[in-house]
Write a structure and sequence with these properties.
The chain has 84 residues and is an alpha+beta fold. The protein has one domain. It has 2 helices and 6 strands, in the order E-E-E-E-E-H-H-E. The strands form 3 sheets. A two-stranded parallel ribbon has the order 1-6. It has a two-stranded antiparallel ribbon with strand order 2-3. Strands 4-5 form a two-stranded antiparallel ribbon. The termini are far apart. The chain binds zinc ion (ZN) (2 copies). One zinc ion binds next to loops.
Amino acid sequence: MGRKKQFIKIPSLANIKCQHCGKKSRRKVPEDSSPPYFDCDKCGKRTSTPVTSCCIICAFTNTKCVPSLVMEAKSKGLTFLKRQ
Ligand SMILES: [Zn+2]
Ligand SMILES: [Zn+2]
């Protein structure tokens, strides 16, 4: 009855969806912060974090920011993987 270790993978890039034109812009995921906004590659408009979200990565991508992933991993007792 071996217990498998579970891992949470830390992403290095995320596609953030512009809330003005819908275009996805690729951005680096910062290692120790939660970005509050980003400027679109296509229309140049700024998308900010909604008040109900942690940051633009948590709000507008299919992943989460690194601090959130680390917190989640700790709360579930999981080990988290460093980015490759
Ligand atoms: Zn845009
Ligand atoms: Zn976040």
